[in-house]
Structure formats: structure tokens, C-alpha cells
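>> received
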Amino acid sequence: MSDAIKHIVIAGGGTAGWLTAGILAADHCANSPEGVKITLIESPHIPTLGVGEGTWPSMRDTLRRIGISETDFIRRCNASFKQGSRFDGWVDGSPDDSYFHPFDALPNQDEIDFQAVWQQAPNGMPFGAAMSAQVPICLERRAPKQATTPEYAAVTNYAYHLDAGAFAEMLREHCTAHLGVELISDTIKQVVQNEQGDIASLTLENTDPVQADLYIDCTGSRALLIGQTLNSPLTDVSDILFNDQALALHVPYKDDQGVVESQTNGTALSEGWVWDIALQTRRGVGHVFSSRFADEDIARGELAKYLKKAAPDTDVTADDARLINFTSAYRKDPWVKNVVAIGMSQGFVEPLEASAIVMVELSASMVRDTLPPHKSMLAVTAQRYNDRFAYRWSRIVDFLKLHYILSKRPEPYWGAHRDQETWTPRLREMMTRWAYEPPSREDFTQTQEIFPASSYSYVLYGMGFKTNPSPTRRRQANPALAQRYLQETSERTQKFISGLPSNRDLINHVLGAGLPKV
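>> returned
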């Protein structure tokens, strides 16, 4: 049929563009004459941001599906293993103020009441440690698998920390060499529309114009197609999430066997927070803050204090950090006519909980799974896509805001976050409900929730929130059952700690011998 969708053009490279290309090309057989043709236009003159270094466990399946070896990925991308996030100083800033959001899910609420488990735990045991063996594993800096565990298989659930620039380069090589993606290295000069307002072609500086049936906008915050051309508006949420600047830098290890943490560390400061991500050869450190509450000089001073405490032997200083400006905003309609926005062209909110790359995965995967065979189906496909991602972005905003509203820190920045006028209506509703019942699947009804009930529970109870116990007993709250769960978790913890190598040791093994193939 003349309106068949046979050619997709991706405008923009970087992690978003090349990850999208790989996801689409692998599934739609771009390396076959019968498959969908995938062309990516990457400008040699436009740099990428290159600071997205945290992923979710979904990345393991994504890499496997597009045919990249885990051993090759770890070697090429300076990658390390990530098992969750640790938050220090977010409640009151005291020395023992720390909690975890591990990747392990909470126990099945149909079978056991995790509130009852926590009540049975030893006095003072943090919620995360009572629920999950992954927390003590992280504290011991253990890896999520053994050297004999095959690629992408796991003992405990894990994702990666990675070098975003190296990752984009690896994806580029793999997509063009193995998946049939055509690369045009050129700069888009003009976007041409037809009478109906669809994108008709892209005019390039040094190459013939390119025409396609569907265009994917991965041009970052410029949003050349979806924003500048089709005028899909941004929904600004900076009145909810205040941060709008970040100071980012790399902190090399003093020796090549430096300790590799098992999680992303997020440390609260007076007017923002610091991410600290351990890769193989360095740490990625960044201070995220709000210009409403601190100027750049104050923020650099706070970052300097952090570095003095967390990296006392480094020669890197806060003056070396690169300033990045951003606005927390997203498009409720990321698919308009024959254009889909993926990556920062679709939206960006602050980097807390590393949602940027996973949103690329989810966006590209939905295009892959719902790609219509004919252009006549574009409008109804776009509506379903827009509904899904408007929901997902609003849930991200809810979840990130949750990290701030329970803080007892005295600084104005944190006090402003506690003001319920800055909360979303849904978050206010959920907080009222959770005072009497814990988060559950009834609060999160989609099959692919961006953050499920377990994630909310780890943050809520990690920060000391209390849910009033039910006045009547339920089967799931059986004390004996709770005690057995605690005992099994303790036994599993000891088994894992004694049997799992350190992150550094497993990385060294992968660099040398590699992981077993499936």
C-alpha cells in the first residue's frame, strides 16, 4: 500500500537517538530488505549533554534484545553494577540519616503485610534493611551476581552506571554494523511541512533532502521537530520541582582499584543535593540545586564542602564543574502528526532516580510495539501513546516530589518543598490515604508503572513516615509469618554476602575473562 510505513528517520544521535535506533531496528528487521528502513541523522557540530550515567534494570533486557554482549558493554562503557539508590541527609541531616531505595520488590501484599514485618524487626533496623537483602549487600559493596552467572542473569536485581558518551559510541557502531541503521552525518538545515502540517522532508546542509513516513525527534532540548516546527507545548513543573541547575564533574580514583559503590548515592545539601556515581575508573559527581535559593557561587561552595568530605584525596575542585541549566518540563503530546519526540525533546525533569534513560527505553519500546502498518493509523496510535506518556510523566513528578516533602531539614529550600501548595493534587490525595493504608497496587493500576508501590514505600518509610495500623487483624499480618520472613531475609543476606564478590572484583573478572554467554 502507498501509505505503508516503511521508512523511519531519527533526527539526532546521542544516547536517545542511538538507543531508539537500536530498539526499533532490531525488532523491525532494518537489516533486511523486507524490514523497516531506519535512518539516523547526526550532526557532527552539535554536542550531546553526556551526563546521564544511571540506568534501570530494564536496560539489561534492552541490551540483550538488540544483541549487545554484556561483557562487551561493560568493557566499552566504563560500566559498573547498580542495585538501587542511597539517600543521605534527606530527613534531618544528622550523621545516621540514611535510607535505601533498592531494586528488590517488596513481598507480595496478598501473602504478607510488610508493615507487620517491620514491626517485628529489631529495634532501629531501617525499613529497607528489614525488607530486602539488597540493602546490606550494597553496604558491603557486593556485586549482584557471581563470575559464573551468565550475561544479563542475576542473583539480585541490577542495572548499570555507565559513561554516556562511550555508550552512544558503542550503540552507533552496533546499529550501523549489525542492525542495518543508515547514518547520515550532517546538520538539519530546514524542516519542510506539507499542506496538512506533517513533516514532508528534512533539508540538510551537505546531503540530499531526506523523506520518511515517520520522524523521531531526538534533538534534545532544541526539540527541532516536535517543538520548533509542530509547536507541541511543554508543561512546566518547576513550581513543583524547584531545581534548575547542576554542576557536574568527573572525579578519578587515586588508583585503578578504587572502591566501586553498589548504588547511586544522593546526598542532601542546604539548597539541593549531590549525585555520586561510581564507574570503573572514576566517579561522576554533580550538585543539583535551585537558583531560587542559591546562586552559582554558593552552589560551588557547597559542592566544594562535599568533595572535601567525600573525596578528600582528589585534585579535582568545584571550580572544575560544568554548569548545566535545565527546566523541569514535559510534553503531554510527544507524538504529533508523523513526529514522535523521544529523550529530552519529549521532556526532562531533574535527574533524581535516573528516569531519563529509562524514559527513552519506554518511549522507543512503545513505538516499536505499536508501530502502525499504515499512515492512516498514525492519529489513533499517537493518541494512545500520548495518553500513556502524559500519565508516566505525571507519575514521575509525583514520585520525585515525594523525596522532598517528608524532609525535616530547616533550610528555606526544604521548607518550600513541604508547602502543600507546591504538591500535585494526586500526591496530596495519596499522602492522605497512606496515613491509614500503605501504598498498594490499587494506587498504581497500569501494567508498566514507572514507579510501583514498592518504590513509594521504600521512600515513605525510609524517611520515617508512619501509616496507622489497622484496628482489626488481617491474615497477612500474622506475627509468625512476619518473623519467618525476617529470618529468611537474614539467612539470604548472609548467604549473598559470603558468596558474592565485590563490585570491583566482578568488574576485574569481566575485563579479563568475561561473563559466560547464555
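>> Residues 245-325 form one domain.
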